[in-house]
Amino acid sequence: MSTALLAVQTLNGLQLGVLLFLIAAGLTLVFGVMDFINLAHGAQYMLGAYFAVTAYGATQNFLLAIILALVGALAAGLALEVAIFRHLYGRDHLDQVLATFGVILFLNEAVRMIYGSTSLAMPMPEVLSGSIRLMPGLLYPVYRLVVIGAGIGVGLLLHVLVNHTRIGMLVRAGASNAPMVSALGVNIGRLFMIIFGIGAMLAGFAGAMVAPIFAVEPNMGDNLLILAFVVIVIGGIGSVRGAFIAALLVGLVDTLGRSFASDILRHMLSSSAANQAGPALASTLIYVLMAAVLFFKPAGLFPARA
Amino acid sequence: MADDLLRLEHVSKSFGALRVTDAVSLDIPKGELHALIGPNGAGKTSLIHQISGWIACDSGRIVFDGEEVTGLKMHARARRGLVRSFQITSILPRFTALENVALAVQSRSGSSLRFFGDASREPKLNGEAMQALRHVGLAEQAHRIAGTLSYGEKRGLELALALALEPKLLLLDEPMAGVGAGDGEALVGVLRDLKAHCTILLIEHDMQAVFALADRISVLVNGAIMVTGKPDNVRADAQVRAAYLGEAA
Amino acid sequence: MQDIAASMPMTQVAPRDRSRLIVPVLLFATLALAPLLGLVGPDRYVLALFTRCVIFAIAALGLDLALGSGGLVSFDHAAFIGIGAYAAGILTASGIDDAFLLLFAALATSGFFALATGAISLKTRGVHFIMITLAFGQMAYFVANSLKAYGGDDGLTLANRSTIFGRDLLADHRVFFYVSLAMLLAVYLFARAVVRSRFGRVLRGAKENETRIAAIGFDPYPFRLVAFVISGMIAGLAGFLLAEQSEFVSPAFMTWQRSGDLIIMVMLGGMASLDGAILGALFVVLTEELLSGFTEHWRVIFGPFLVLVVLFARGGLLGLLTGRRHG
């Protein structure tokens, strides 16, 4: 494996990590503060991508498309919250699982009805479509760097929001002790709505940002959702910082594992056996990582609850 | 002492900056009914939680029946005869009263890794469970769903569950809390009965009951034991009167 | 209930409720007679559809043990089905087609996976457990995808159905249906016995109130783990049958959405009632068939239906039918 390949795959891993963070951040707050398991969070990411594609089709303006996608994701998230989810807070986790699963079935299929099953693509803006030479023999697409940068930027923004604002203080208090916050006379319903809205926007933003580089298709959120869960479990429920670190970790381990597992195995096994076992091993790496973290720290790396 | 059933050595526990149990040392000999009293927030229930193994203590040792149990979980301690009741009733609300108690009997009689045979038709389990229910006056309610019992009846069931385990040491956390005067008197009778069968550590706010029943009393204030002694000595202790009884009176 | 107790205060055993037998007897009778529909409709289609119903009823029964009695919201069960199916598929591909051997392999592999993942997942509760089983299920899915020697993401076609003592009895669709139905009956009776046994009682108790169960001296962990393994093996059995029926296995058997479908079956039918799991499986498989004949976008109808059931009808179908709430 060359250094350039390693660097490229590291950047790809970072990109996946940043994406996972955007999805996991909202999810972990919703879990942590509201004790609500929302399987439809991945579908909200998918909606963000479709909103972006649609808005781009209407405006032919990339920036406007992203902004409209954010607005759309927020509106869709709040609509779901008001119509369905707020009736599920405090209910059994099983009820939440089932109802949000129903929401996924509906959203995925509704999108399939409107846009069809074939994947769509959104053109990326001219200025960002080139590649940049990071080092000799290493060209990397500018847009992917922008995705990484935007994700880290949002992460910082969220960090400031959670740690240095009044809402953030309530969010942190809620994640460590929800009954206490409501006992303090805070309007819990409104706090939940704000958190949910932020989560929906983050997921939608992730979807919109990847629309130019990933296939935009109805069930694009389903598998990413599970990865986001792995991130949350590793990072610790309710912790944005934990989600950030775990997301980068999962992104890197998964991407590098898939690229290099066969190469590494080849040192130990015959070439054909390595080619067989490599992909299978690579696809289990992050789950092994998760199991290992759970074994040593059952509440994750940065548990929000004491 | 050799015949101490329970020995606590410098048991301590903190939640953050709050020290709920402060180097508590206590010996309870076999056959004693020991009452633990103290103002609200003194850490009585926290101490019961640590003795029963529901929460772990930070430091110190707990020795039960000659064996150190400090690191054991609640179920392992219960198996050894160190049994507790809960201040906030903890029962299986969708099981019948009889099934609740029969499950406790099952816990100490034979293996529970049996996959065949209807457990609700085992005469041995039901018979002994019925006996425990009779003991607390709930025989007539045996087939009612536990969740539908009255509050007082649930307190009785809570006690029956503990009794069915044939405990060596019974930790009772306010068995009379919230029970009306009539039921309360009946419960005092039940407790007096129990004294003959097992050692008891009792938390109770009803001072009349405590002074009527207890062999010895410990007063817990701010997580630490202020005094331990016979009821009359405790009653007479000036410190206690100032810190606790005076406050309550 | 109260009146009965009052009239015979000293009886130690609650009277047996014969009315509880009506639902299972009706269910099994209906299933046994279902192939008669083949007289009026396309025979193979009817048999295939109801065989599918029976197979998913087996899987749902398995899940109901973990979910209904144990309170374990598991998203691993599609993986158990898939592992059972792959065990059968891979052995068939290597030339072994004895039904008993395949069945044994399916049970052993799914049971082992349930033991390994359960041992870790069951250290956690609640939302954590849900997420971790989702993750392990997804892991199995991706591993199946990467099995290039066995078709990768395209799946693997079985050359033939397995044989019993060297004879290809299972090749007949009618025989296969009744063999599956017999397995469903066996699993049902087994599950019923387990739920009522000493073991089942501790398991159900731990679902109701974990603290109380610990206070009377039970560690819930081994009980849950054993239940999880039994439950996973039953799903593995369903996977074996599914592979045999469709003569095909693929990673699509193992998607986490498939686990969601199983949870839906159990919940819709009515939790912890066993009858409900069978009823729920029938309902979901048949509804899917019916709706998808009507529109390919049947999920647009089914999704909101689920939401409404959760919000408004909490006892499941069996609750609606019998006016009883299970769980």
Structure description:
The complex is a heterotrimer of chains A (306), B (249) and C (327). By secondary structure, chain A is mainly alpha-helical. In chain A, helix 1 (3-34) runs antiparallel to helix 8 (188-210). In chain A, strands 1-2 form a two-stranded antiparallel sheet. In chain A, a hairpin with a 2-residue loop joins strand 1 and strand 2. Chain A is globular, with a radius of gyration of 20 Å. Chain A contains eleven helices and two strands; from the N terminus they run ααααββααααααα. Chain B contains nine helices and ten strands. The two termini of chain B are 36 Å apart. Chain B folds into two domains: 1-81 and 167-249, Rossmann fold (3-Layer(aba) Sandwich); 91-166, no CATH class. The longest helix of chain B has 15 residues, at 181-195. In chain B, strands 6-7-8-3-9-10 form a six-stranded mixed β-sheet, sandwiched between helices. Chain C has a domain at 43-255. Chain C has helices at residues 2-7, 22-33, 43-69, 77-93, 99-121, 126-145, 173-196, 198-208, 210-215, 220-246, 256-269, 275-294, 299-312, 316-322; strands at 156-157, 248-249. Chain C has a two-stranded antiparallel sheet. Residues 1-12 of chain C have low confidence and may be disordered. Chains in contact: A-C, B-C. Chain B binds chain C through residues 52, 54, 73-76, 78-79, 83-84, 86, 90-96, 98-99, 103-104, 106-108, 110-123, 126-127, 130, 139-145, 148, 161, 164-165, and chain C through 1-2, 4-6, 9-14, 193-194, 196-202, 204-205, 208-209, 211-219, 222-223, 226, 327.
